[in-house]
Amino acid sequence: MEEDVKDIADRFRYETLRQVRLGNLHPSKAIHDLEYVRDKAEESIEELKLYEEQHDFVEHIIDSVCAYYTVERNKVFSASRKPYLTLPRHTIAYLLRKHTNMTLEQIRMRLGRHRNHSTLSVQNKACKKRIEEDKHYANDIEKIEKLLKQTT
């Protein structure tokens, strides 16, 4: 953010009081406007708290999958198509989609801009199919999900 939220709030407060002093704004209207801003700020705080919780959980999923497959985060986010990196990457995307309310576009942005959301959609379907057909992978997913539940 170029302009700090505190600066915006201070400027709004200063300008509101200035307009009241100049007689350009009735005090009751200023009170109404400030109460509206306060209400919107409270709504924003609640929404940001939810976002913060989700952000922490997203990071937890990424860390857990990287630890499970013993790969470095920065390599998982690379453009590499090496199987030892694509499996954790696909697993992260699958778990993010399953356990958060993130859209495919948001997951794409989190995993790296060199992927597109339609690719993620195909990968997600492939993960679901692989879970059904590959007992070892299904077991991996189950272990990771247990790990997520234990440490949250």
Describe the structure.
- The chain has 152 residues and is mostly helical.
- It has two domains: 5-47; 52-150, DnaA protein, C-terminal DNA-binding domain (Chromosomal Replication Initiator Protein Dnaa, Chain: A, Orthogonal Bundle), CATH 1.10.1750.10.
- It is 80% helix and 0% strand.
- The chain has helices at residues 5-21, 27-69, 73-76, 83-99, 104-111, 117-133, 135-150.
- The two termini are 30 Å apart.
- The relative contact order is 0.08.
- The model has no long low-confidence stretch (mean pLDDT 88).
Radius of gyration, whole Å: 23 Å
Q: Could you spell the SSE succession in H and E letters?
A: HHHHHHH
Number of strands: 0
Share of helical residues: over 70%
- The secondary-structure class comes to mainly alpha
Named CATH architecture of the largest domain: Orthogonal Bundle
Number of helix segments?
A: 7
CATH class of the largest domain: Mainly Alpha
Count of distinct structural domains: 2
| Overall pLDDT | 88
CATH fold title of the largest domain: Chromosomal Replication Initiator Protein Dnaa, Chain: A
Q: Strand-residue fraction?
A: under 5%
Q: Regions with pLDDT < 50 over 5+ consecutive residues?
A: none
Largest sheet: none
Task: Note the main attributes of this structure.
152 residues; mainly alpha; Chromosomal Replication Initiator Protein Dnaa, Chain: A; 2 domains; 7 helices; elongated
